[in-house]
Design brief:
Chain lengths: ~120, ~400
């Protein structure tokens, strides 16, 4: 079994209702994602997962120098950022890609699949 | 000379896909499989000149390679985790439900799906397929695609690394994924063939080693999946296209279908292609490659260009448009319409296509088709501009020669 990171990429600037368009659409996406989560827990693929708050809440820390340097905001200035992620445990990439396709449909976003080095 | 180095290398290449596929199943690692295959070749080059090529060279190579790999892995077992895993994974038991022969075929099919996995970049799929299943060297593949050998080497290394790290599986895809995955494999074979048939760059306009390799792999795929009509359709399409290869270029210049010497077509390939077209169409599950093959069957059925059943060709393009509504298919349909309803009707359709699909502006066949229709209508200055536009985006030497001559002949 391999651990894969499934990260959801979305716009850095979030609108009201988080770019879902409407309150109903947002609630439907949350419900679909919740159902997906319950299913992959029951099927044994789930390791960890969650949504992230807005990128404006991020802080970058560089602790390589003598005193840590803190910078407000995300590491990269970019139009697309990770909005949430799962860590799954799957036997091979075909299974991971199938789960990612379902995850993408549920959360209304593109999902990047990337294997961990060794087990997470 | 059956025992010469060249003959042995030829046998090795013929057997390479089978050998690698079997070793990947046994050891679960492509690099180990390739190293072991390379060692088996060294042993063959030592022994075969004296002993002669064994009656079952594939079996001999597989056994030799597997033994070498096991020896090496046992020596390295304590040092390296990956090698320990490979020894532990080593599996020399034939699959329970399959005989030796089926196991062999099954392995090659798995390897084909691994090499053409949609998680790999399209150019990497092509390179890996030619390397691992076709047995071409990295140098040969690099030459075929006109990239430096180091670039091609890196492309292949990177793809193999991804297969191992991301665990791209070595298996026949699940039934739900199968149609999509078969289509990915067919695309790879079609691209290999096309690069051979209509080569880009300054070199030879046709690279027969690529068309031959694509046909060989398509034959293997068909033997593995005889019930898939699109697989049969692709093989038929490749054979019917290959049959016209010799007649298609004369003196470095492209010869269009209606000007080709039909006596120079390969009748054996045409007969085989026609039989395959009938066979797949009888299954009544039409697809892109089957319809393309059927169109080529109509062309190769006509004793002269004038005798072509253009109504049938146009009807087949209509069917293809329903499957694949792309502007390129519509453009090809317009060529048939020119023969049925005249160049004026066809030109109106082509111009409308150009307006609706600006992407056609970068496609040389769009301009070449327009140029030809304008020429037939006697609109020379517009034809000249269209030939210029075609030449500006055409990168096949034989087609360029044809377009330049046509342009020069305008009055």
């Amino acid at each position: 079994m391999t651990h894969y990171l499934m990260s959801v990429h979305g716009p850095a600037e979030r609108e009201e209702y988080g770019n879902y368009g409407s309150k109903e659409a947002m609630e439907q996406a949350f419900a679909d994602t919740g159902a997906f989560n319950e299913r992959i827990k029951a099927e044994g693929y789930w390791v960890f997962g969650g949504g992230l708050l807005d990128a404006s809440t991020a802080t970058v820390v560089d602790g390589q120098g003598e005193t840590p340097v803190m910078t407000d905001g995300p590491y990269l200035e970019t139009k697309e950022l990770i909005g949430g992620f799962w860590v799954i445990d799957a036997p091979d990439l075909d299974v991971a890609l199938r789960l990612a396709a379902e995850a993408s449909k549920a959360c209304r976003g593109k999902v990047e699949v990337r294997p961990f080095e060794g087990l997470a | 000379m059956p025992g010469s180095t060249a003959a042995i290398e030829q046998v090795f290449r013929e057997e390479y896909g089978r050998l690698i596929a079997s070793l990947v199943r046994r050891f679960g690692d492509i690099d180990i499989a390739e190293d072991a295959a390379g060692e088996a070749l060294v042993v063959a080059l030592e022994k075969w000149p004296e002993s002669g090529v064994p009656p079952n060279p594939g079996g001999w190579l597989t056994t030799t390679a597997a033994n070498r790999a096991i020896d090496k892995l046992r020596r390295e077992k304590l040092r390296d985790d990956k090698h320990r895993q490979a020894v532990d994974m080593y599996d020399d038991t034939p699959h329970e439900s399959l005989g030796i022969f089926e196991q062999d075929e099954d392995d090659r099919l798995r390897l084909m799906f691994t090499c053409c996995h949609p998680a790999l970049a399209p150019e990497a799929r092509i390179a890996l397929t030619l390397r691992l299943l076709g047995g071409l060297t990295v140098e040969e593949i690099a030459q075929a695609f006109l990239v430096p050998e180091t670039t091609m080497g890196q492309r292949i290394t990177r793809a193999k690394k991804k297969i191992a790290a991301a665990r791209i599986p070595y298996k026949i895809p699940d039934a739900s994924d199968l149609p999509e995955r078969v289509s990915t494999v067919l695309t790879v074979l079609f691209l290999v063939f096309n690069e051979g048939y209509l080569s880009t760059g300054d070199g030879s306009p046709i690279r027969a080693e690529l068309t031959a390799e694509a046909i060989r792999l398509a034959r293997i795929l068909r033997s593995l999946m005889p019930e898939e009509p699109e697989v049969t359709g692709l093989l038929a399409l490749l054979l019917l296209t290959e049959a016209r290869r010799e007649a298609r270029v004369r003196g470095g210049e492209l010869v269009r279908l209606d000007d080709q010497d039909r006596g120079g077509w390969d009748r054996e390939l045409i007969a085989e292609g026609h039989a395959l077209v009938r066979e797949c169409l009888a299954l009544d599950r039409p697809g892109r490659y089957q319809v393309l093959a059927a169109i080529n069957a109509v062309h190769t059925d006509a004793p002269t260009a004038e005798a072509t059943d253009w109504a049938q060709v146009a009807a087949l393009y209509d069917q293809l448009l329903r499957i694949d509504p792309s502007p390129i298919v519509a453009l090809n349909r317009a060529v048939a319409i020119a023969e049925l309803d005249g160049p004026e009707v066809a030109l109106a359709q082509v111009d409308r296509l150009g307006q609706d699909s600006p992407v056609l502006a970068s496609y040389h066949a769009f301009h070449a088709t327009r140029a030809d229709l304008l020429r037939r209508l006697g609109r020379s200055s517009e034809a000249r501009e269209a030939y210029d536009a075609a030449l500006a985006v055409c990168d096949n030497t034989a087609e360029r020669a044809y377009l330049s001559r046509r342009r020069g002949e305008l009055v």
